[in-house]
Amino acid sequence: MGNDISTEQSDPSIPPRSLASRDIDGVAQFILEGRAKRIVVLTGAGLSTSAGIPDFRSPETGLYANLARLDLPSPEAVFDISYFRSKPEPFYVLAKELYPGHFFPTVAHSFISLLNEKDLLLQLFTQNIDCLERKAGVPSNKLVEAHGSFATQRCIDCKTQFADDLMKESVIAGSVPHCTVPQCNGLVKPDIVFFGEALPSVFHERIHMLAMADLVIILGTSLAVAPFSTLPQLASEGVPRVMFNRDRVGDIGSRLDDVVLLGDCDEGVRRLADALGWRDELEAAWLEVGGKVKETEVERLRNARPTMSEDELLEAEINKITAEVESTLKVTDDHVAWVNKALDGSLSTRSTRNPGTLTNEQDLDDPIRNADPVAEQRLVVSRSDKVSSVTSHATLDSSLPQNRPDDFNGSSSKT
Ligand SMILES: [Zn+2]
Asked: Quick one: pLDDT band at residue 50, thresholds 50, 70, 90?
């Protein structure tokens, strides 16, 4: 089988085998005739973009640009397990943006839930980590979160599960959570599959369901990430494969019973619901899981983001990272006092301590006094009880791009 998708499209003059027609009406008829009772749904990021979830790869969201300015080696690094191990703060900046609770299911999520209510859903395989499928009402026995999700979390060292409420507190506070097992203190990470990690076993346990499907519906995925991208090919010949997506992707369109519906997922499923006579049920199901709230929230985000200047967006990101770095270092009062003492000695305008008690000899031995000016500015960040947050930000901004959390970590040690 060749991989050149563009040359593999089926001949439009040859009629489909299973469907009456290669369009929405043909798919609706197939379902209404009771020929689709084991539907497998495959979803990706496009399912959730209308929920307002920022795509971190998209330059338009601002998120990517800001993370990039914090010197990630690549946008993907934020989901790289070895990078996370050395520097978890950027991930937690993203986690705060993506954490479940801010977002509500889309109409397309509710369509999948409706399929389940009608006992037509065999399985949903999603690449999304936002838990919106659960929120829409898809039960866990019908759901494979192929790339994991924010639903649970654990220590990356001893693998002990971490409490949901503690996780929520950390994410909201913008702090990096650490394992509560005595002597461990490992980093805690949501059970999201990072690059370099294996897919959850449930993916492999249920992958055979593709071959059992009598209809495959693909929603909002570019089918770019293996092995998920290979799933549509596991559907048996003659089983209709229907894709709702902004672009034609994968080998969809190469089989006689493939239907490609280009455009927005929500719009597409609403058209299908119309053709099925399910539209009222769909809208009711969606409203029940917060559809109206979602609409309002999306509007709010859409209005808020463009009004923030680039500097404000950057400052917001820096602010979050700064808070996380402080927490990671677990700066104690003693440490702050020690830092202040050292700084007071070097900055004559800020003599809140007794600079006179520092002898020249002590100065030479003092790592703070001997640090370069930029390092001194970084340390200002940890003096949250001494310096207002506004001052901290001003200090940070003036020293960008050198002032990075990794440098900060690298030049300081835990007390
Ligand atoms: Zn641990």
From this structure: confident
